[in-house]
Amino acid sequence: AQSVTQLDSQVPVFEEAPVELRCNYSSSVSVYLFWYVQYPNQGLQLLLKYLSGSTLVKGINGFEAEFIKSQTSFHLRKPSVHISDTAEYFCAVSAAYSGAGSYQLTFGKGTKLSVIP
Amino acid sequence: GAGVSQSPSNKVTEKGKDVELRCDPISGHTALYWYRQRLGQGLEFLIYFQGNSAPDKSGLPSDRFSAERTGESVSTLTIQRTQQEDSAVYLCASCAKGAYEQYFGPGTRLTVT
After folding, report:
1. CB B82 within 8 A of CB B16
2. Which residues of A touch B106 (CB under 8 A)?
3. What are the backbone angles phi and psi of residue B11, rounded to the nearest 5°?
4. Percent of chain B at pLDDT above 90?
5. For a designed S-S bond to B46, which of A83, B34, B58, B100 qualifies (C-beta 3.0 to 4.6 A apart)?
6. Is A10 an interface residue toward B (CB < 8 Å)?
7. pLDDT tens string B9-41
């Protein structure tokens, strides 16, 4: 089984400032890692994913994340945020192999990013 | 192309009533997942369908919850004898065969009064 911890429930940041949203996971098996964004009253949109290869992954809207296996972390970063980035961000993991075929996601509780003008 | 759609978008029901939630996956996506998002919580996995294989029901919280899917088409999640703790947003996601990215619908907000 996997678990995900998002240490910050809310992160306020000024517009054009950098931001880091933290995510740590626990798993006894190899994992795939994802970040999703949820805008108010909308479904989840995939920001980026790590499956294999380069541990620095780039996603949409200028976001990137780095997988550090030794720290079981997958923190999300953006060098300069915009008002439109105000949303809730969810980190998620799935087992990298599933004999049953289900790659169900285990989610963290989310981090609400508020960008201040 | 069309994304995942869910209906209704909102449902208010009285405690003890049955409800049925619908999910239309992206055309051609073989895998379909249901999740529940309670207020202030992350998403919880409920059930997984893959083609005509037996579903993975390991996330269903009680026997009041059931789901069906015929082939690779529409899925319905049924909650019988609803309780107040069932109030949540129910999200459906679909995934193409061989891929790992799940595409989510907008969800159904269920309120049990």
Report:
1. yes
2. 41-43
3. -145, 125
4. 79
5. B34
6. no
7. 999 999 999 999 999 999 989 999 999 999 878
A49·B100 Cβ contact <8 A: yes
Residue ranges of chain A with per-residue pLDDT less than 70: 99-101
Q: Please tell me the distance from the alpha carbon of residue B21 to that of residue B47, in angstroms, as a whole number.
A: 13
Buried/exposed B29-46: b ≥16 CB within 10 Å, e otherwise? bbbbbbbbbeeeebbbbb
3-state SS assignment for residue A60: helix
Give the list of residues 6+ apart from residue A102 with CB closer than 8 angstroms, or none: B33, B48, B50, B56
Beta bridge partners of A20: A77
Three-class DSSP category at A71: helix
Rounded to whole angstroms, how far apart are CA atoms B90 and B105? 9
**CA angle, residues A20, B45, A36, in degrees to nearest 5:** 25
